[in-house]
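Both lines are retained for reference:
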Amino acid sequence: MNEATASNAALVRQALARLDDDRGPPPPAECVRALECVLARDPMYLPAVLVLRALFLVHPLSVRTPRCVPHAEFLVCDLVKKVTAARHTCIEDGDQLAAQLLPAATAGTQQQHAAYFVGMWAHYVHQNYQVGTRIFRELAELGNANALNSLGMCCQRGEGTPLDMELGARLFTRAMLAGHIGGIYNLAICCERAEGVEKNQARSVELYVKAAEFCHTSAIFNLACCYDNGEGVSQDKKRAVELYRRAVEAGHTGGIFLCAMINLALCYAQGDGVPVDMSQRAALLQMAVDCDDTSALLNLALCYEDGQGVQQDAAKAVSLYQRASAAGEADATNNLAVCYQNGTGVERDLAMAVRLFQRAADAGDSNACTNLSHCYKTGDGVPRDPRLAWKLLLRSALAEYGDPSCAVAEYEYGNDSDNDDLDNVMEGVAGAMEEDLSFDEEEEESGDSVGD
C-alpha cells in the first residue's frame, strides 16, 4: 500500500468509527472535509464514497451528499460497514466482488444498490465492460431502474455487449417507466437523434421538460437549446435564457455547465431574450475561464482588447490570448500574432507575428492564412514572396468560402472594382490554381500578376 492509499485508508477508518452509533453526535467538520479531499484526489475511491454517503444518511443535516460521485444515493449504511471493514484500498477484483454481491441482490434494494455500484466501478473506472455489463444485465432482469438505464447505454455504445440502438432505447423506456430520471433524459436523446427510435423532436422536448422538473442539468440545457433554436417547440429566446441561467445556477461542473455559461454569455452579447449587457457577458466568460474553458479564454481576451464589458486592457488580452494559444486555440494564436504585429499590449515584433501566423495557419485558421499572405506580399517580418502570398491567400479563400476566385477578387479589389478588373483577377486565379496555386515568375516580373 503506497503512502497516498495508506493516508486515504486512515481517513476512512476515522470516519467509519462515526457509524457505530446512529444516535451519536454528528461527525466533526474536519472529518467530512478530509473525506471530501480524498474524493477530490480520487473521485472513485470506493471506501471513501461509501463512508461519506453513509455519514450523510445518518446525519443528513451535517453532511452534504457527495456530489462528485454519480448515483451516490444507492449506497447504504450497513453495507458501508461491511465493505469498508473488509477493504481499505480500491477493489481490484470486480468479478470476485460481483460474485459475493449478486446472489444476495434479490434479498432487497440495499444489496442491489451495492451490486450496481460495483458494476459502475468496474465499467467506468477500470473499463472492465464485461464485468460491468454482466452486473447491469442481471440487475436489469430484477427490474432495477439504474441497471436498466446503464445497460441501455452499454447497448448503444457497444460496451461489453453488441451494439444495439433499438434495444438501448427500449431499456431507456423501461428505466423511465420505473422512475429513472436518467432514463427519461437518454430516451429524449434517442428521440432527438433518431437513435433506436424514429426522430421525434416534439417528443424529445416533452421528455426534456419531464427530466428538467427533476433538476437534470443536461436536460435543462438541451431544453434551453430547443427553445433557442425553435426545435420541437416554438422559438422563445426569453425561455431559453431562463433555462440557460438555471443550468448555470445548478452549479455543476463539466461540459454542460460550461456550454450553458457560454450560451448565456452569447445571449447577453447579442441581446437574444435579454437586454444587451456586455458586463454580464464578461462576468460569465470569466466564470468559464475559472473553470478552465479554453474557448472562453479567447472570447474574454476579445472583451479586454476592445473594452467590452470590462476596462480595456491590451496587456490582459495578450495574456489571455497566450493561454488560449498554448491550449491549442488557433483563433487565439492568430489574434496574438496581430497583437505582436501591431504592438498592441506587447512590444512590436514582426518576426514573432509571422511565426504565430504560420502556427495558426498550419492549424487550419483561414484568417491566419490571409494575414500570413499579407506578410509575404508586403515583406513584413519575412522576405517578400508574392507567389507564396498568392498560395496562402487562395488556401484561405478555399477553406473559408469554397470559392477562391471570388474571395480573392474581393480581397484584392474590394466591392468598387470594375468588371474588367474582376475578370482579370479571376483569370489569373484560375491560372494559378492550374499551376499548383502559384504564378509564373515571368508574370510577377512583368507586373501582370495581380498579386503584386
